[in-house]
Amino acid sequence: ALRLSYLRAGGHDSAILDQLLHLQVEATALEKGTTGLRRGRKMESPDTGAREVDAALMAVELENRRLEDELLALKIRKERRADVGSWVAQQRAEELAQLQAEVGMLRCHTERMASRLPPAILPPPVAPPLPP
């Protein structure tokens, strides 16, 4: 649960993920040890070959969990980037729409103002100078 909440919160530091995984292994080992004692069974020591297989299996399981955590972290980062990208695109589209509306209003305003102005009064044409 800690590992998942860390990943969902955006954590991706491999050292922290390794520590969380190590804590999980310790907790699992403690739980197995205490459940065995609670049931009143004596802990039987398996032979060396079985211990090596168990250790190898545990190592593979831990590596699988680590890789799953890494995949989850990558998926979360990818989703966040996609969310940010779509948010930026949406913001740009809204800004563009607002600017287009403003341009339309300005055009309409200038057309109205042009129709209200009286015709331009030009100064009389200047005659060319007389020859000497």
From TrEMBL:
This is CCD17 protein. The gene is Ccdc17. Residues 50-77 form a coiled coil. It comes from the Eukaryota. It comes from Baryphthengus martii. The keyword Mitochondrion does not apply. Keywords: Coiled coil.
